[in-house]
Amino acid sequence: MTTPAVSIKDLHKSFGDLEVLRGIDLRVEYGEVVCVIGPSGSGKSTLLRCVNLLEQPTGGTIDVLGVEITDRNVDIDDVRRHIGMVFQQFNLFGHLSVLDNLTIAQRRVLRRSRSKSVKVARENLERVGLSEKEQAYPPQLSGGQQQRVAIARSLSMDPAMMLFDEPTSALDPELVGEVLSVMRKLALDGMTMLVVTHEMAFAREVADRVVFMDDGRIIEQGTPAEVLGNPREPRTREFLHRVLHPTELATDEFLDDQAGPAGPAQVTIPKADPHDFA
Ligand SMILES: Nc1ncnc2c1ncn2[C@@H]1O[C@H](COP(=O)(O)OP(=O)(O)OP(=O)(O)O)[C@@H](O)[C@H]1O
Ligand SMILES: [Mg+2]
């Protein structure tokens, strides 16, 4: 059996008395795209952050790119430089041009020359469709463009795998598609990707495997057709129903909470302005 990109065994993580991860076992093969879905607070971000030791596990082992990072003697920075991470917030340097945002870590961490780092940066800006923005500053870009810059910045470090934590959830609805399409292309290029997402259509189309988490555990995992199309576990079914019919459940919950002759809950679903697509 080949070594997987990530192998997590019996991972536990507590914050004080709060046990957030309660025994996670997960493998990600090289070239695989794994999407993690689940309710808010179920531990998805904590799981992802454990994979590059932004959180220190309280139990279990994690092997990443063939290195057991939970071994205290491992130099985590050595492993981290091969892992790209893209967050909900883009964390770009606002006072640096797009090009400088993409070259700074290449030069400082990888010790690349100016000309090599610019060449790599330009290749990656082209991959995300933003070649014409290299001299712009992040505050001059839309959220979708900023997130694509953040992805290009990660790619410029030649990562062996990428972690994404809800990369589109801070974006206006009409900007989500451009980021997802960059991620789809990356997946087609063979990048190993572990993606926490609420974008079910993306998971269905792009993931090799979907993992459903609830309350610090993996409840079920399988192909998108299995987990999203024909979930075995009641908790998965409930979650998917809630995600796919948000107004219905928000109203039910509201009425349960009120337990009285309250009127229907006011639920605001953000809608894209049709003019934005013109
Ligand atoms: N640094 C921390 N200190 C204390 N508690 C934390 C910390 N980080 C996360 N938690 C708690 O751990 C639980 C899981 O959080 P986590 O962010 O992993 O959930 P999530 O599945 O990513 O949720 P969401 O979908 O809202 O992003 C939550 O109850 C959260 O409050
Ligand atoms: Mg999260």
Question: How would you characterize this protein structure?
Answer:
By secondary structure, this protein is an alpha/beta fold. It is built from 10 helices and 10 strands. The strands form 2 sheets. The protein has a 6-stranded mixed β-sheet with strand order 6-7-8-3-9-10, with helices on both faces. The chain is globular and about 55 Å long.
* Total beta strands: 10
Mean pLDDT: 90
Element order: H for helix, E for strand: EEEHEEHEHHHEHEHEEHHH
Contiguous uncertain segments of 5+ residues: 257-278
Q: What's the total helix number?
A: 10
Distance between the termini: 51 Å
**What structural class do the secondary elements suggest?**
alpha/beta
* Major sheet summary line: 6 strands, mixed
Spatial strand arrangement across the major sheet: 6-7-8-3-9-10
Q: What Rg is obtained from the alpha carbons, in whole angstroms? A: 20 Å
What sort of overall outline do the alpha carbons produce when their principal axes are compared? Answer: globular
